[in-house]
């Protein structure tokens, strides 16, 4: 599962060989995944804010302070000497356990960003879309589907035929010279989703939050995904149909502005 040498269990740094995956499968767990770039946990403040929101939605009480989480994450980054990676922390409320570890994640290639990736729709809904609750069965089911289809991501479609989000991403569609995304009440409030909304507002890009029917996919001009591991990623193929998202002017503009935000965030963290 992981190739890194150490993980954090509560206050202790442990050898990776001692990692107990049952702590992820048993009990009520909330989690966050943070991308590390140049040794900096990107947009950490936004992730911690979302953790508090997930706890509120699930009526769970956090027993660790924000400062504790930040120190633990910086500690494990230094211990594993990671410049770029996917850092996950989990709170198991039944066991009162805090875990932090690096996931073995394959980030999108330069080709993926320049040409786009393939995706497919899948009829499935989250029980509580606004809360980042760990559900291993849900994840395994979707991973199996994506492997069978040989695709990068699956788009979840609800019982009413609306596209909600990706299995591990938020979805944005370009149609009629504007960007459309699912209303926040129906999806996990991704940190990158929030950033894209801010970018659109500041750059005067027309954005609409509304439910998107699956059958609208034949009418769109572009589609992109946002998530912690792969940032902003264009899509080249949906359900076998080609789409030139990587060449879309609006998508290229959002990707460019987002890259600038990353550079500034790392720069400001390095100074502080």
Which labels suit this protein?
six-stranded antiparallel beta sheet; D-amino Acid Aminotransferase, Chain A, domain 1; 2 domains; ten-stranded mixed beta sheet; 32% helix; alpha+beta; 272 residues; D-amino Acid Aminotransferase, Chain A, domain 2; 7 helices
Structure, explained:
The protein has 272 residues and is α+β, with helices and mostly antiparallel strands. It has two domains: 6-103, D-amino Acid Aminotransferase, Chain A, domain 1 (2-Layer Sandwich), CATH 3.30.470.10; 110-263, Alpha-Beta Barrel (D-amino Acid Aminotransferase, Chain A, domain 2). The chain is 32% helix and 31% strand. It is built from seven helices and 16 strands. The strands form two sheets. Strands 7, 8, 9, 10, 11, 12, 13, 14, 15 and 16 form a ten-stranded mixed sheet that branches. The mean pLDDT is 91.
CATH classification class of the largest domain: Alpha Beta
The CATH superfamily of the largest domain is known as D-amino Acid Aminotransferase, subunit A, domain 2
Broad shape: globular
**Number of H/I helices:** 7
Share in helix: 25-40%
CATH topology of the largest domain: D-amino Acid Aminotransferase, Chain A, domain 2
Whole-angstrom Rg: 18 Å
Number of strands: 16
CATH structural architecture of the largest domain: Alpha-Beta Barrel
The overall pLDDT, averaged over residues, is 91
| Tally of structural domains | 2
Oligomer category? single chain
Pfam families: Aminotran_4
Protein name: Aminotransferase class IV
InterPro entries: Aminotrans_IV (IPR001544), Aminotransferase-like (IPR036038), BCAT-like_C (IPR043132), BCAT-like_N (IPR043131), Class-IV_PLP-Dep_Aminotrnsfr (IPR050571)
Keywords: Aminotransferase, Transferase
